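Hi team,

Filling in the usual template for the complex we talked about on Friday. All components are listed, including any nucleic acid strands or ligand strings, so the model treats them as one assembly.

SUBMITTER: L.P.
PURPOSE: interface mapping
COMPONENTS: two
RESIDUES: 734
SEQUENCES:
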Amino acid sequence: MEVREGTRSYRDRADEWQAGGAWRRTEPVPARQSRRGRTMDPRRLARGLGWFSLSLGLVEVLAPRFVSRLIGGRGDNMGLIRLYGMREIMSGMMIFGQGAKPAVGLWSRVAGDAIDIATLAAAASSSSTRKGPLAFATANVLGVTALDVYCAQELGRQQPTLSAGTIRMSRSVVINRSPEDLYTFWHNFENFPRFMHHLESVRATGPRTSHWVAKGPAGTKVEWDAEITADTPNELIAWQSAGDADVDNSGIVQFERRPGGRGTIVRVEIEYRPPGGVAGAMVARLFNQSPEQQIYDDLHRMKQVIETGEVLRSDGSPEGTGRVLQDSAQPKEFSSTNLEGAMR
Amino acid sequence: MKATCWHGKRDMRVENVPDPKILNQRDAIVRITSTAICGSDLHLYNGFIPTLKKGDVLGHEFMGEVVELGREVTNLKVGDRVVVPFPIACGACLACQAQMYSLCENSNPNAWMAEKLMGHSPSGIYGYSHMLGGFAGGQAEYARVPFADVGPLKVPDGMSDDQVLFLSDILPTGYMGAEMCNIRPGDTIAVWGCGPVGQFAIASARMLGAERIVAIDRFPERLAMARSKAGATDTINYEDQDVLDTLKDLTGGVGPDACIDAVGTESHAPGLMYAYDRFKQALMLETDRPLALRQAVMACRNGGIVSVIGVYGGFIDKFPMGSFMNRSLTMRTGQCHVHRYMKPLLERIQNGDIDPSFVITHRMQLDDAPDGYAMFAKKQDDCVKIVMTA
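RESULT (copied from the run log):
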């Protein structure tokens, strides 16, 4: 299925390419379903609660007197109700604004619910409130609170990077080579430190085993032995850390030929338990070493090494790394002090 | 070495900075003999392009003599005179193989930044923000040229800097703008903006066989140059005439077959619409002012082509999508894929089809770059194009 290029002008090729052929993306991997197979989809529920927050917030801000009467008050405390309305709107916006992570917005709703319950409890001790409507309002708030907690927990479960001790990530990149070439390149693990800048060395210790040394935080070293657990020539390689690893990890790389001589999609999935658990990962993120960014940078550097022969360095980032806080574009000497300066 | 550094909005300084060094084995170091200020540098100067930092060296139109080469560069020798294309391209990725060099997948080490803003990243560009690679620019005494085995064009003996310097950007950019119009005999082409790129778009439309070429600007000297040097058949000063009415008049109501936007993000127009866009831009509600682009869409004939070579940075507002969709218009765009045009256009210059040096109005020393920027930005002294020597 090689495209014949001899007879066609660059304009044909460029038009065809621009028409989307080369950019066409494959279908995304379907999102993981809730493990317990419950009928209530927490994402839908979250959206419902988000709209509820926004509507209630608007009513509280625009018609506080009405709300006060509804819950058994006398139509005073309008400022407080308006304030709560704004809080509701904030929660609603967080639920919709967080994109993939509405759980944060939902936990803010739970906190708001607690404030509401405390306020209602304080009102119950006042003689001027009508107890019937107040009890009705309290029952409603308790019901919604239960829903909020349930929904936030379910959403949290769907985000293994936040709730479990394991970090899982996947990324892919297209490289203008055959799956055969890429499989061979990848199989030689000793190549890895050329584009994975957090690795110090990888040494083959047997046909299926290797020893890895990586840079840990604050100048420490992290070491482990890895073992190949699956190996299908030109298709995939899977590995797992063996024995007493500093960082338990496993991963799989798959090579998928793109039709029409358009290179190969390299898909990498990696799972690991960071030292210091998820808290450690959060701290690492503060220092700009988020695992997602690292794997993205690694794959793009690998693409550069394979397609162009080396990692391209820019004058602004002479080390050729990705997400470091960059110094200015003035020509800089290539030295490790620059990197430290940039990462400060 | 001396270099022109950006220090903030409308604050350029010529400073001493460290000499560039070979960082990759496919690099070359070029001692710059001629360098120019591009209209798109004014977008940086005026602070409209994000991720620029204090001290960044600007400039992406330059040429000079090779003084040092990385091990892997075998097609050049020390002492060669070269013109350097402004997009940086590896020559090996799928985009480069399709000759879409300004979309090179390997030349932007900061691709993740551009992806945040644009979804996907284009190639790296010299001296054009960190989002596009953080490469030092060429308004300096020396520059580092990555992938020197792919980009630089050797200058034949006997040709002057003035004749070939603009192969680095504006001549190919103007040419690509005209080429994207699929010009057929008898076509009418309208060009918004008569800066250097607009002048070359007009000249290229003429070379490609357009019958009628309408130049649109507000500066009489630029319109005069378009008519006398570039080959425009008609001119419209948009401060005196209504552009859409005049284009309809000229074409019997049909509209131009293709419209070229050679203006980009900082367009002007008389009246309320300009105030509206300037206000929104000041409040960061839109990043770009698409006044020329809106007009180009509205003016274009049914089924025609809108070719966008003016630079935009981010987001626009009030795009006439209804006009665009219902009238079967096509939009073609892109930072120029300079590499693929350098040799054919060099031949055009050698044949005498075009002498690009006609746009040069001012010559300066590198030390005067800050004055040059100010003059070019304010269009003082009939300034169209400034060429600097180090």
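MY TAKE: DSSP finds eleven helices and seven strands in chain A. Chain A has a mean pLDDT of 75.

Thanks, L.
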